[in-house]
Write a structure and sequence with these properties.
This protein is of the alpha+beta class. The protein contains three helices and four strands, in the order H-E-E-H-E-E-H. It has a four-stranded antiparallel β-sheet with strand order 1-2-4-3. The mean pLDDT is 92. It has a domain at 10-99: Gyrase A, domain 2, CATH 3.30.1360. The chain has helices at 10-16, 40-57, 84-97; strands spanning 25-27, 30-36, 62-66, 69-74.
């Protein structure tokens, strides 16, 4: 018998959205995030990334896809609300889509920033630390 999942109240959801999930928001019972892109190529890259992560997690979001943005909506349908599964997948999506190798130590440079031909996603501004 499956264990019942905790469904978070709206207040609990808003509290959990601080920090790493600060760009996600609660609307109409869904966790939502809008990723802005530089055009169709970037939009497809975000959609494919979210699709891979969701399938691997076996937890599937609703997506709204347009030329220069993707909206991701998460809710656990079987629980009829937002659960730990939604926060976990939102965190993984955020980590991968917002990853910028050029901003960390390591051999990967990241995409060139000076040439608009190579831009594909509009990254969030880094948090002031």
């Amino acid at each position: 018998m499956a264990q019942e999942e905790h469904v978070y109240s709206d207040d609990e959801v808003r509290q959990r959205l601080a920090g790493p999930l600060q760009h996600w928001y609660l609307e109409d019972g869904w966790l939502r995030r809008k990723y802005r892109t530089e055009g169709w190529k970037g939009t497809l890259m975000v959609v494919n990334t979210v699709g891979h992560l969701a399938e691997a997690a076996w937890h599937h979001p609703d997506l709204t896809v347009s030329y220069a943005f993707v909206i991701v909506k998460l809710k656990t349908h079987t629980a009829k609300g937002i659960t730990d599964k939604d926060f976990a997948l939102a965190t993984k999506i955020e980590d991968v889509v917002q990853w910028q190798p050029g901003h960390e130590d390591g051999p990967l440079e990241g995409t060139p920033t000076g040439d608009p031909r190579f831009r594909y996603i509009k990254y969030d501004a880094p948090d002031p630390a």
